[in-house]
Amino acid sequence: MKIAFIVFKDITWLDIVGVYDPITRLKALNYLPALTWDFCSFTQEVTDSHGLSIGPLIVQPDLTTYDAIFIPGGKGTRVLLQNHEFINWIHTAEGVPQKISVCTGSLILGAAGFLKNNKATTHFDEYETLRPYCKEVSHERIVEDGDCITAGAVSSSLDLGLYLCEKWAGKEAATFIRKKMEYNG
After folding, report:
1. How much is the pTM?
2. What's the CA gap between 48 and 137, in Å, rounded?
3. CA 80, 84, 86 angle in degrees (round to 5)?
4. Are the C-beta atoms of 159 and 141 separated by less than 8 Å?
5. Contact 15/102 with Cβ under 8 angstroms?
6. Where does residue 44 rank: exposed (0-12), middle (13-18), buried (19+ CB within 10 A)?
7. What is the C-alpha end-to-end distance of the chain, expressed in Å?
8. What would the 3-class secondary structure string for the chain be?
9. Scanning 40, 88, 99, 167, which has the fewest C-beta atoms within 10 Å of its C-beta?
10. Neighbours of 58 (CB within 10 A)
11. Mind listing the pLDDT tens digit for each residue in 32-83?
């Protein structure tokens, strides 16, 4: 399995790290030894609104080569909704088997057209913003509908990461990883 972690200017890092940590343990603990991932961006530089940067990045890779894309949230998602070139790049992941988001990353999935027939969730302050992009807005913490999985606000990222561990490697793996993380959520 190969995952594209999509990163962008004004990202909320906890959105991505909350998923990244348990998922990468699937490889480290040999539950999914062939698991790989890339940090993918539309631009050369990615910094959150407080100045924390990440690199190196793969800039505008072919998203069709991935088994899953993951889009976190952050203030930058509102600007990206108006960036047609970015949305068109995300839309190239149409055939990717799993499209996943946390917080306002679901707005990007929606703008790319992936949620139009789906139930989805997002940050609680953005339910109305999500409404035009999906069939139904849910207030659930994690929503899986078709090939899309969306999660609520920032703290749901860790729950989503463990949810994906169970989905991809089974309950035993997720339980073990949860225990290693000493997470009782």
Report:
1. 0.95
2. 27
3. 55
4. yes
5. yes
6. exposed
7. 27
8. CEEEEEECCCCCHHHHHHHHHHHHHHHHCCCCCCCEEEEEECCCCCECCCCCECCCCEECCCHHHCCEEEECCCCHHHHHCCCHHHHHHHHHHHHCCEEEEECCHHHHHHHCCCCCCCEECCCHHHHHHHHHHCCEECCCCEEEECCEEEECCCCHHHHHHHHHHHHHHCHHHHHHHHHHHCCCC
9. 88
10. 12
11. 999 999 999 999 989 998 999 988 789 999 999 999 999 999 999 999 999 9
CATH classification code of 2-181: 3.40.50.880
User: What are the extents of the domains in the chain?
Assistant: 2-181
Amino acid identity for residue 116 in this structure = K
